[in-house]
Design brief:
five-stranded antiparallel sheet; Lipocalin; alpha+beta; membrane; transmembrane helix; Immunoglobulin-like; five-stranded mixed sheet
Length: 814
């Protein structure tokens, strides 16, 4: 009986384990589902079927495809596949590009034009020009920056080119930082050069250097690192009999010595020189090197290099090494890839964004591209092979495979097979395996209550040097920076909660000012893995998108003016300008301020007179700015504009103020100082309701200024006699009454006394007038003495704001 129970229990455990294994393996062996994208060209380009020559993708998944036809048809044809599935045609005639680039006889009459996507409307195009196409020594490589309408922004030479040279271009992990171009030369020193493309489309040369002579395009891989640098991994085969290095020759003879070594050469961003470290040693002579591929690790931390090797009669192996930017190895593994070993086969391996790998192989003898998909642990995913053409991996783990004229419904069409590769980790829409959620959510709508944004990670992190950028999307191609946030600055408003998994960032009140579409870009290295101290990937442009709705009604406040102050260098720069240039300087300053706080430029105007700040020891210049009121309740009122301008200047390193040609000279320690207020809002509201009565008493006050006191006397409890005078206004009325005694009452009594003594006949009316004046003067003097006594015992304090109230504190923290 006990034995039967034991057998039953063991059987149950085995069945349970088998079910678990089946559940784990089944999804991995499921054949990937294939969808199709087909497009028929409107125009017949050159009398041959269109061919997908190459494809590129933006961070948000927008695809740009290059189509070629007859090589004699000199057209740079691009097709933009938007994320909503719409396709836009762009046929561009490249200026200054010679015809042989489209049909190069030294490359099997193939097209040799290359391109990379820099920004949404900036494309880097590489081509060659020659003074004599038949002379190999006259070729030179060029690069141009164009937009999708064919406009050329800049052109530069990348140097002389020989047919034996091999050139590779690699974008930085952050496209805003530019790219690196590596030239492998057989008979000369191989070199690298970094470039950046600014927002105006101009090339900016950065650092340059040379690479080791042992590095060739066949034994190396260039790749960007997560922290914004570049790297070249290369493999040295120590069993090669042609190796001239004496040390390596000794290693090849020694049976215990490594048979091959994988090195990584780190090239810092815009830094001359490089550092090299040993990453891996191959101890097995039966493993034959095939190729090396490297890239940043989408799912884990750091970078990954895969060394593809073949083993006699046992197929292919992937030796995978995960390592940090410091060179420390995190994980090393060896997977057997079961695909056929074909002589002269070229193998390419690519990491997939949400785990796994894509391996492609091709031969020159066959016009086929064999595709193999593998999970993180090397398990294969069934996929139809023998796919003609090329492929493109999208940020969401989708792979596009092009076909040439196969299964096309039209002679003039092209298509893609679309395969959504199973993901090893969750995708929450941010194209980043580390992020669980954010506030605001993707495609959500938020209102004026948004004071913070937050990011939730799936493991503990710490803040780092990367920045978080908030943009307003004006149209499909135009964006406007609203705030540039660094969580490591002294003024940062970033905090970490929830066991170091949640980042909350406080934002300016004017960051989201007007209704519209916005997106937030997270730079790589914004945070680091708290364990490995390694930068994590960010979120690209146009991915974390949402809508902001502003339905607030503002109070209508009257126009006012204020002062901004230039820095010491800004003051010197301004004073050295001509009168016309000074006017243009201030005009540009007003334009940048209006753009920053999101108001119409017509509401800002300048004063024709500037002055030196008397409180500045360095004689800094003050510029007066007038802010016009608005009657539209849905536009910002003057008080809000004052607050926003002040905040934008104080924190100019995070706003457009710090980027403008004029506004960059504004003094952040001064901010925006509004003019002293001459009227309290309470008095302004009372005056607008009782302006007729106020006008009458203003006229009567010409006889005696104290008549104005009646307006604030609360006579008979009537609201019209409840004018909310400020203390300073009451003080002025009081001292005006005293002044009136000396310039009116006393002279009047003196004149009447002199008149009585110098008159022969003196009527009763002048006598009564004299007595009345003396009594009135006595009452005024006694009354003023009483008020002075009270003011001495309890001084009347007037606010710093002037006649009708105090100046509000406009310096409001974020």
């Amino acid at each position: 009986m006990w034995k039967m129970r034991s057998i039953s229990r063991n059987l149950f455990i085995k069945v349970f384990i088998l079910i678990i294994i089946i559940l784990c393996i089944y999804p991995l062996n499921t054949k990937a589902q294939i969808r199709k994208i087909s497009y028929t060209e409107v125009i017949d380009y050159g009398g041959v079927p269109p061919h997908v020559w190459d494809a590129r993708t933006y961070d948000d998944g927008t695809v740009v495809v290059r189509i070629i036809g007859n090589c004699s048809y000199e057209m740079f044809s691009l097709r933009i596949i938007n994320t909503d599935g719409t396709i836009v045609n762009k046929d561009i005639k490249l200026e200054g590009v010679q015809q042989f680039n489209y049909c190069f006889k030294y490359k099997n009459n193939n097209d040799i034009i290359k391109y990379e996507l820099i920004r949404k409307n900036q494309i880097l195009v590489l081509y060659y020009n020659a003074t004599d196409v038949d002379d190999a020594n006259t070729y030179e490589e060029y690069g141009i920056i164009i937009d999708f309408d064919g406009k050329t922004y800049d052109k530069t030479s990348f140097g002389k080119f020989k047919f034996t040279d091999q050139v590779e271009v690699e974008l930085n992990i952050d496209r805003e930082k530019g790219f690196i171009i590596v030239k492998y030369s057989e008979d000369e020193t191989s070199t690298w050069q970094q470039y950046k493309v600014d927002s105006d489309g101009k090339f900016i040369p950065l650092a340059k250097g040379v690479i080791d002579n042992n590095i060739t395009i066949d034994n190396s891989a260039i790749f960007p690192t997560v922290d914004g640098d570049y790297a070249i991994a290369y493999y040295e085969d120590l069993t090669n009999n042609n190796n001239n290095n004496s040390i390596n020759a000794i290693k090849a003879i020694d049976s215990l010595a490594p048979k091959g070594e994988l090195f990584v050469e780190l090239i810092g961003y815009n830094k001359n020189g490089s550092t090299t470290f040993l990453l891996y040693q191959n101890q097995y002579s039966e493993l034959i090197y095939s190729s090396v591929f490297c890239g940043f690790n989408y799912v884990r931390v750091g970078q990954t290099c895969s060394l593809i090797t073949t083993k006699s009669r046992n197929g292919n192996y992937n030796i995978k090494i995960n390592f940090l930017s410091s060179g420390s190895i995190v994980l090393s593994s060896n997977f057997h890839y079961n695909f056929p070993v074909i002589s002269n086969m070229t193998i390419v391996l690519r990491n997939l964004p949400f785990g796994g790998y894509l391996v492609s192989s091709s031969t020159k003898a066959q016009n086929f591209l064999y595709i193999f998909l593998f999970t993180e642990n090397g398990t294969s995913i069934s996929l139809q092979s023998n796919i003609v053409g090329n492929y493109l991996i999208l940020p969401n783990n989708t792979v596009l495979f092009s076909r040439i004229g196969m299964n096309s419904n039209s002679y003039n069409s092209w298509n893609f097979d679309v395969i959504d590769v199973p993901k090893s980790v969750d995708d929450n829409g941010y194209l980043n395996a580390n992020i669980i959620s954010t506030y605001p959510e993707i495609d959500s709508s938020v209102g004026l209550g948004i004071n913070n944004i937050s990011i939730n990670y799936n493991h503990p992190i710490e803040l780092s040097d990367g920045r978080l950028l908030i943009y307003q999307l004006l149209d499909d191609q135009t964006i406007l920076l609203r705030q540039n946030i660094s969580c490591t600055d002294d003024n940062s408003k970033c905090k970490i909660f929830n066991n170091n998994k949640n980042v909350i960032i406080q934002i300016f009140r004017f960051t989201f000012g007007i209704s519209g579409n916005y997106f937030i870009k997270i730079e790589n290295n914004f945070v680091k893995d708290i364990t490995y101290k390694e930068p994590l990937l960010g979120v690209g442009a146009h991915i974390w998108k949402f809508n902001f709705i502003n339905e607030k009604k503002y109070d209508i406040t009257r126009s006012t003016s204020g002062l901004v102050r230039l820095t010491v260098p800004g003051t010197k720069y301004f004073q050295n300008l001509s009168i016309n240039d000074q006017d243009q300087f201030v005009d540009q300053l007003l334009n940048d301020i209006a753009e920053t706080v999101q108001i119409q430029l017509s509401r800002l105007s300048k004063s024709n007179v500037n002055q030196i700040d008397p409180s500045s020891n360095q004689k800094q210049l003050l510029i007066s700015i007038f802010i016009e009121e608005t009657k539209n309740q849905y536009e910002k009122d003057v008080n809000t504009i004052i607050r926003d301008i002040n905040d934008a200047i104080i924190y100019k390193d995070q706003t457009l103020i710090g980027m403008g040609d004029s506004t960059t000279y504004l003094d952040s320690n001064y901010g925006f100082v509004p003019a002293r207020e001459n009227m309290r809002p309470e008095f302004f509201h009372w005056f607008t309701k009782n302006f007729r009565l106020a006008s009458v008493f203003t006229v009567l006050s010409g006889a005696n200024v104290e008549i104005l006191s009646i307006l604030g006397s609360n006579l008979a409890g009537l609201k019209i006699f409840q004018a909310p005078f400020s203390n300073s206004a009451k003080s002025i009325i009081f001292w005006g009454g005293i002044t009136n005694i000396f310039i009116e009452d006393i002279p009047q009594v003196i004149i009447q006394i002199l008149f009585e003594f110098n008159s022969i006949t003196y009527d009763i009316i002048p006598k009564l007038t004299l007595y009345t004046s003396v009594i009135n003067l006595t009452i005024n003097i006694v009354g003023r003495l009483y008020q002075v006594d009270r003011s001495v015992k309890r001084p009347v304090r007037s606010g710093p704001g002037g006649l009708f109230g105090t100046r509000p504190d406009w310096t409001v923290p974020i």
